[in-house]
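Lab meeting, item 3. Inverse folding demo.
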């Protein structure tokens, strides 16, 4: 596990869980979707699970915690996996969550739901050309931390072109659990992209990745067609 991810930014937020308002996703159920035939060489490439990879919920994954979600893996090893859902903004502002942090005054940053585990814990994901103090590299110029001073540093860096998002909670899997879910088709695995994490509108992230990386899908609620047998 990443040694710096100590969650020292744990906060006692009374009633925060009730304040979080995750936009309702257009949760299409897998029963209404069937994959079109795709030539073997046209299928999306497969990638190994690792830190810095995206796991993208397939259309068959209807668990409300993860339906239509895109998770950036912060850690993956024999002990399990840990990541952040990057496309679940709330209506809660960061200054409401941390009202005593002077650096956040006059800012309109929203808080994201990082996952269903420990929603009283805050994690900061930032893009910076320099590695911030008390932060660890996830991939490219993306770093993660749970340190209050690093959050303040991220705010300062944002005035110089840096970007950051703040999450409550995280997604976690036990040993082999995520591997099993990927094997049965719940998730697609693809390389992380900074532009998708920090620049895309949240509602565009899952549709873009599922279309780009999961092949073409069609909606069809009719029963399967049968080959004609010569009978009318």
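The presenter then showed the designed sequence:
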């Amino acid at each position: 596990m990443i040694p710096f991810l100590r969650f020292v930014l744990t906060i006692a937020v009374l009633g925060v869980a009730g304040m979080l308002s995750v936009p309702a996703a257009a949760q299409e159920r897998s029963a209404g979707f069937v994959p079109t035939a795709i030539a073997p060489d046209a299928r999306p490439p497969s990638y190994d699970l690792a830190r810095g990879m995206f796991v993208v919920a397939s259309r068959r994954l209807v668990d409300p915690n993860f339906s239509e979600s895109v998770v950036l893996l912060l850690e993956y090893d024999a002990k399990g996996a840990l990541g952040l859902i990057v496309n679940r903004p709330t209506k809660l502002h960061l200054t409401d969550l941390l009202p005593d942090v002077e650096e956040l005054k006059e800012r309109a940053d929203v808080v994201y739901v990082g996952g269903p585990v420990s929603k009283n814990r805050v994690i900061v994901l930032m893009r910076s050309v320099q590695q911030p103090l008390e932060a660890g590299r996830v991939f490219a110029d993306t770093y993660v931390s749970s340190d209050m001073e690093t959050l303040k540093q991220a705010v300062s860096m944002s005035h110089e072109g840096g970007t950051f998002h703040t999450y409550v909670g995280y997604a976690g899997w036990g040993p082999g659990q995520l591997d099993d879910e990927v094997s049965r088709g719940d998730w697609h695995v693809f390389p992380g992209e900074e532009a998708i994490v920090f620049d895309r509108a949240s509602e565009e992230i899952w549709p873009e990745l599922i279309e780009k990386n999961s092949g073409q899908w069609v909606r069809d609620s009719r029963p399967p067609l049968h080959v004609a047998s010569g009978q009318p």
